[in-house]
Design goal:
GO terms for molecular function: calcium ion binding; calcium-dependent protein binding; RAGE receptor binding; S100 protein binding; transition metal ion binding. By secondary structure, the protein is mainly alpha-helical. The chain has six helices and two strands; from the N terminus they run H-H-E-H-H-E-H-H.
C-alpha cells in the first residue's frame, strides 16, 4: 500500500483522506450517527463550517443528509455534504489564484 500511495495524485490522496476520515468517525458500522456527524464536522471541518453547538442545526443537517430515513448517514449520504462545503468554499480556496 505504501508504494500505491506514493503514486497517487493529490486529488486521489484527498479522496482517500475523505474515506479515511469518514471511517474514523463511523467506526465498524460504516455509518454516522448524529453525534458522530457532529464530532466529524466540529473536529475536521471547523475552518469551513461553523462548529455545531445547537441541536436544531444538527437535527436539520442530519435530516437533510439522511436520504433513506434510517437515522444514520452512510458514505453515499455523506458525500453531498463534502461537495456542498467544497463548492461553497471554492472562492476562498482560490482567492490567491484570481
Amino acid at each position: 500500500m505504501v508504494c500505491f500511495r506514493t503514486m497517487m495524485s493529490d486529488l486521489e490522496k484527498a479522496m482517500l483522506a475523505i474515506v479515511q476520515i469518514f471511517h474514523k468517525y463511523s467506526r465498524h458500522k460504516c455509518k454516522l450517527k448524529k453525534a458522530d456527524l457532529k464530532d466529524l464536522i466540529n473536529n475536521e471541518m471547523s475552518q469551513f463550517i461553523m462548529k455545531i453547538h445547537d441541536k436544531d442545526t444538527l437535527d436539520m443537517l442530519f435530516s437533510d443528509l439522511d436520504q433513506n430515513g434510517d437515522r444514520e448517514i452512510d458514505f453515499q449520504e455523506f458525500i453531498p455534504l463534502i461537495a456542498m462545503v467544497t463548492s461553497a468554499c471554492h472562492d476562498l480556496f482560490t482567492a490567491d489564484h484570481h
